[in-house]
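Please describe what follows:
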Amino acid sequence: MLNKNTINVLSAMNSITNSVILKYPTTILNNSAGDVVVKLNLETLDSDPIPEIGIYNLSEFISTFKLFPEYECSITDNIITISNENSSLQYLTTNTNVLENFNKKEDLFTNTEKVATVSEFTLTNDDVKTIKQAAGVFKDLTDIIVEAKDGDVIVKLGSANNFNAKSNSFSIKKVGINSAKEFTIKIPAENFNALPASDYVFEVKYNEAKDAYRLLLTSTEIDMKVLMAIKK
């Protein structure tokens, strides 16, 4: 229950949110703005089920487990007990009603997956890391722009500020991507920077009736999907 694999993955999620309602087998996490949502399959990390748990301070929650090189865990009502031969602690969970803003539904993913995919490409962990590093260098470029044109997909840094947009630049090109339509979409760099380290398959979803795009990312290393809203 709440084994090391689970805690390590939750630690990676801490870059997206510091509050979460843990549900088994599927946990949905989101950032405070609600424009980044994660679907995480806990069952692939730990076969031992857990009840629904509200965590207000995820970083504190993770740190309690890090106190124990090895541990056993039990949950009674709203108290998590972590112990080994020499030490034990009790952690008080949060009433889930307090975390209503962090209680997104799995339907978000089900409905998005039904929408047509107009482009699909892969960014490796190295690609993701490099884009994050470039965004850290060029802090004036606050957007990640995804552009499909002439059979290629370009992921680049950009800015809504016209002056900044004409100065520094960085891009990664994925060639030979047969997109169903050409497009230019953007997401905040801060949302991209919050992605846990992984290789990702990016699907660009397009709802023709609403003329709206969304990004659906699937990790090839963790049983996890990420929904990102497109910046208007």
